[in-house]
Amino acid sequence: MNTSAKKLPKVTAKTLLHPVHFLSLGFGSGLAPKAPGTFGTLAAVPLVLLLQGLPSWLYFVIALVAGLVGIVLCQRTAEHLGVHDHPAIVWDEIAGYLLALSFLPATWLNLVVAFVLFRWLDIRKPGPIGWCDRKLHGGMGIMLDDLLAGLATAAILHTGHALANTLF
Predict the structure, then answer these.
(1) 148, 129 in Cβ contact below 8 A?
(2) Cβ neighbourhood burial of 45 (10 Å; 0-12, 13-18, 19+)
(3) How far apart are CA 166 and CA 160, in angstroms?
(4) Residue 141 burial (CB < 10 Å; 0-12/13-18/19+)?
(5) Cα–Cα distances in Å, from 155 out to 5, 84, 104, 125, 132?
(6) Helix or strand or coil: residue 141?
């Protein structure tokens, strides 16, 4: 995201009142003056806890739907703000973090490790995550790098669990 070349438009309260933008802006968490992506990811933690009582397959379907719906949500908010990937748009972090905890119990250890891994992958953007961030545009470009970061986080966590179960 190269938003430093021009001044970002301010997100108004009126924008936040629109249901599409309310979701794209992470229920307002994306309006944090510093590290909005981190605050957007934090906003996902209560959603993970709320969805944990569901069967694992249904949790995963909801996480996937959040990602797919996010393509449209983020595209509409980006168009409204006139910036491809405005930092206040954090639905991608929410959907990515939901995916990161798919098929895992919401223990505090899993929540924290997933949070740290997901944020690291989202910020550093290694491999295909970075390629998606640089090459894709629109709602797909906003969402896909975070969804890949979420899937990579899930893969790392599942591998860690499998190793721990094997060794201990």
Answers:
(1) yes
(2) middle
(3) 10
(4) buried
(5) 36, 29, 11, 16, 18
(6) helix
Nearest to 149 by CA among 87, 88, 67, 34: 67
Q: What is the pLDDT of residues 56-72, one digit of tens each?
A: 999 999 999 999 999 99
Structure-token pair, residue 162: 């499998």
Structure tokens at 94: 């929410």
Query: Can you give the pTM of this predicted structure?
Result: 0.94
> What are the structure tokens assigned to 71, written together?
């393509």
The two tokens of residue 60 are 């995963």
89: tokens are 């748009």
Q: Which two tokens stand for residue 125?
A: 């953007």
Tokens representing 11? 């997100």
Backbone CA torsion sign across 129, 132, 135, 137:
negative
Task: Give the separation between CA 96 and CA 94, rounded to whole angstroms.
Answer: 5
